[in-house]
Design goal:
The chain is mostly beta strands. It is built from 3 helices and 18 strands. It folds into 2 domains: 140 residues, Nitrilase/N-carbamoyl-D-aminoacid amidohydrolase, CATH 3.60.110.10; 153 residues, no CATH class. Keywords: Hydrolase.
Length: 305
């Protein structure tokens, strides 16, 4: 096994930045050591990420990692949408996405924002409202043919369709438990929302198998589970979730993160959900909840690696 490469640099304005790249974001090292032993709270992240629906879109992974660790993340993604590479952003931990961009064409964009420095255990000092204009996001329906995604095969997932005001799902498998309950109203013709859960080995890049756990709510193009992981059509659809409660308990995995993705391919505003993870005696428990989601979304879930 190769020894992780721990990298950081110090700036003349008093901030130490940790550095990691690409699939490092899904694994314990090198980031765990940079977070705990070096006490770094600001990171730069160059990547050539290959986006995959519904759990691994670039923006949702970047935002989820920054949120779970409550750190600043400056993510610069190589941009080639036809090759499934796009997605950059600036994130302020539990304050969420400051600015992010999923591109539909082969171009360069510079993302600029004022970012507050962080100290562990200290509440954020950000008070102003950040507005993300349409130039920093993608209209999913207008541009869906211009951005390609890999598609995760969910046919082995335990799943139930949301067909009424109250829907629940419970999943148990070899030390992993997932419990989901939702209250919702749906209007118009459009995608099918499902509660989904699964744990097991999956392959990255055709040659590396990794144990993963998923527990959450996703939008699928139709009622067939095989359609999940493909782009839904939201043109005549509106969703109103009055309550989503997701609870996972794992004996195998410490790091969990929120996976959120709107129909504009951005992460959820931090104010609309709550995330809490804690270590118990021999298990790790995580809660992801929201009391109001009044916009269309593709993914609201917990992921563990």
């Amino acid at each position: 096994m190769k020894t992780p490469d721990y990298s950081w640099f110090d700036t003349d304005f008093g901030v130490r930045f940790g550095i990691f790249t690409c699939f490092d974001i899904l694994f314990k090292e090198p980031t765990a050591t940079l977070l705990s032993k070096q006490n770094i709270t600001d990171f730069v992240y160059p990547t050539a990420w290959f986006s995959e629906l519904p759990f691994y879109s670039a923006i949702s992974v970047q935002a989820g990692w920054a949120y779970a660790n409550d750190v600043n993340l400056l993510a610069a993604g190589y941009n080639n949408p036809k090759n499934k590479n796009t997605g950059s952003g600036i994130y302020e931990g539990r304050d969420g996405e400051v600015v992010a961009h999923m591109s539909h064409d082969l171009a360069t964009r510079l993302l600029i924002s004022t970012v507050n420095t962080k100290q562990r255990g200290t509440p954020s000092s950000r008070t102003e409202k950040i507005t993300i204009t349409s130039s920093t996001s993608v209209n999913f329906q207008e541009r869906k043919l211009d951005i390609d995604f890999f598609h995760y095969n969910l046919e082995n997932f335990t799943s139930t369709i949301i067909s009424g005001p109250d829907t629940n799902l419970e999943y148990n498998n070899e030390g992993f438990t997932c419990k989901i309950s939702v209250q919702v109203s749906l209007t118009g013709d459009g995608p099918t929302y499902r509660l989904v859960a699964w744990s097991g080995l999956r392959t990255y890049g055709g040659n590396k198998s990794v144990y993963v756990e998923f527990c959450g709510v996703i939008a699928c193009p139709d009622t067939q589970l095989s359609s999940c992981g493909y782009e839904p059509n939201f043109l005549s659809h509106h969703v109103q979730f009055s309550r989503i409660s997701i609870r996972s308990v794992s004996k195998k995995s410490l790091f969990s993160y929120p996976i959120t993705l709107t129909d504009e391919l951005l992460s959820f505003p931090a104010k609309v959900f709550s995330f809490k993870s804690q270590k118990m005696i021999e298990e790790f428990g995580t809660n992801l909840t929201s009391n109001e989601i009044s916009f269309n979304f593709i993914t609201f879930a917990l992921g563990r690696v």
